[in-house]
Design brief:
alpha/beta; about 55% helix; 2-enoyl-CoA Hydratase, Chain A, domain 1; 2 domains; 8-stranded mixed sheet
């Protein structure tokens, strides 16, 4: 288990409980089961207390936790007959964005998502989930495919933001993000999005301009990272805690503001503590959102999506 900074007291208790169990395994005659069970109960209570009142910055840390399930995990668990499609038919295939055809609850769909990777090698291959222009152009190609064949689109958002490198800018990063956002608004099929970790800036909006948007309970969604915001406003990245408060980037804040449509509950301690339960909860949310859109005509879906985003600012001001 990788523990976050605010989880250190919990780490000590769970570590002591594990030490006792290891001693019992090495010396079967030792009767220390009650002591270990008491520590387990104490750790469980502490875990509940910690996660009951996380600050926005702590939620940001949880959203970035390396053990959280990523896009690839959700695809493997929730979708059958997965057939990845590669390339933008122009420059290259961007590994930061996964996309392809699949079946969800026996229905053909198109799935698109950002993948961060799970170890050093895969994180480098996936560019830590930061897509280049060719990644967004791949997403556009897949959305066109979905529109042509009448397939619902499901997007899984998890990125600190689009890649800001020189090559990406030379190949039209801003234009690619804008075109992807525009394509989201144009396709006449149901489009649902789930923020499963970080939803960073335009890199997230390019896949999340959907009829229905859900967020996992401890995910975050913002125009800029807390560190980036602090660097700009206070010239000090160490003020990221204050920035996280000001950005109102939590699922709970964004639900109140009308930016997202539902908050998906996570297991106690975050999705990283019970990955199967978190993945199942996301699957149920996707099924519910697709159910809400079932039977709607293409024109109605497009109008619903545009209305949702045009009204978003008004709801925010009212809140």
């Amino acid at each position: 288990m990788n523990y976050l900074d605010f989880e250190k007291p919990l780490a000590e208790i769970e570590g002591k409980a594990e030490e006792l169990r290891a001693m019992a395994r090495a010396n079967p005659e030792m009767d220390i089961g009650k002591e270990a069970a008491a520590l387990d109960r104490k750790a469980e209570a502490m875990l509940r207390d910690l996660y009951k009142s996380l600050s926005p910055w702590q939620k940001t840390l949880v959203a970035r936790h390396p053990d959280r399930p990523h896009c690839k995990d959700y695809i493997e668990a929730l979708f059958g007959e997965w057939m990845p499609l590669a390339g933008d038919r122009n420059f290259a295939d961007d590994q930061a964005i996964m996309g392809g055809l699949a079946r969800f609850e026996d229905r053909a769909v198109v799935v698109i998502g950002q993948e961060k990777g799970h170890d050093t090698k895969s994180r480098i291959e996936r560019n830590f989930g930061m897509a280049r222009p060719e990644g967004y152009r791949k997403a556009i190609r897949l959305m066109d495919l979905a529109h042509r064949f009448g397939l619902p689109v499901i997007t899984l958002v998890d990125t600190p933001g689009a890649y800001p490198g020189k090559g990406a800018e030379e190949r039209g990063q801003a234009e690619a993000i804008a075109r992807s956002t525009q394509k989201c608004l144009e396709i006449g099929v149901p489009l649902v999005a789930v923020v499963i970790g970080e939803g960073g800036s335009g890199g997230a909006v390019a896949l999340a301009t959907a009829n229905r948007v859900a967020m996992l309970e401890h995910s975050v969604y913002s125009v800029i990272s807390p560190e980036g915001c602090a660097s700009i406003l206070w010239k000090d990245a160490e003020k990221m805690r204050e920035a996280a408060e000001a950005l109102r980037l939590t699922a709970q804040d964004l639900s109140r503001l009308g930016v997202i449509d539902r908050v998906v509950a996570e297991p106690v301690g975050g999705a990283q503590r019970d990955r199967p339960a978190a993945i199942a909860a996301v699957g149920a949310a996707i099924a519910a959102m697709l159910g809400e859109l079932a039977g709607r005509k293409p024109q109605a879906l497009v109008a619903d999506r545009r209305r949702k985003f045009l009204q978003m600012g008004a709801k925010g001001l009212a809140a």
